[in-house]
Amino acid sequence: xxxxxxxxxxxxxxxxxxxxxxxxxxxxxxxxxxxxxxxxxxxxxxxxxxxxxxxxxxxxxxxxxxxxxxxxxxxxxxxxxxxxxxxxxxxxxxxxxxxxxxxxxxxxxxxxxxxxxxxxxxxxxxxxxxxxxxxxxxxxxxxxxxxxxxxxxxxxxxxxxxxxxxxxxxxxxxxxxxxxxxxxxxxxxxxxxxxxxxxxxxxxx
Length: 205
Ligand SMILES: [Zn+2]
Description:
This protein is of the alpha+beta class and 205 residues long. The protein is built from 6 helices and 9 strands. It has a single domain, classed as PAS domain (Beta-Lactamase, 2-Layer Sandwich). The protein is 27% helix and 30% strand. Strands 2-1-5-4-3 form a 5-stranded antiparallel beta sheet.
């Protein structure tokens, strides 16, 4: 089973093209004390189906969350968050970008630990959603990709260009990749700003 690069990306890939009504849903997944996904709610599964990702609950359940996070720093941050929740009862809350091709979307994630079951629950919801001109670069159905790799922050969707991180909308204009063409592949990581933001947040838990 192929899962997305990061947890945030995983959430993104199943939430494209949400309707207004669906925007009110919370998307929940839970991991057990071995880090395996042990629960996803119907909203989570339904979005997967609506977006052409025909994944069943049976396929998701039992998969290891951390094994699917490619970027080491992002993996490290999630491990810290999970450990703080599990060992110190510190629940985290943070925002992240989770765009669909035609929508600028800000999400909130909350992380809780259930002491009785020793499970950690991740609850995401949409904070804001603003339509904009579609960006093919982040369209998972756009298969016409070159071997060029473009680094993108999983947390804020900024794009790395030579020596700086550029906000997504500005980057596609600046780099001339708004139109339907052969596009670079995306490699997910974390930008300096998000790394600092998340580190500070964890320190202050
Ligand atoms: Zn970022």
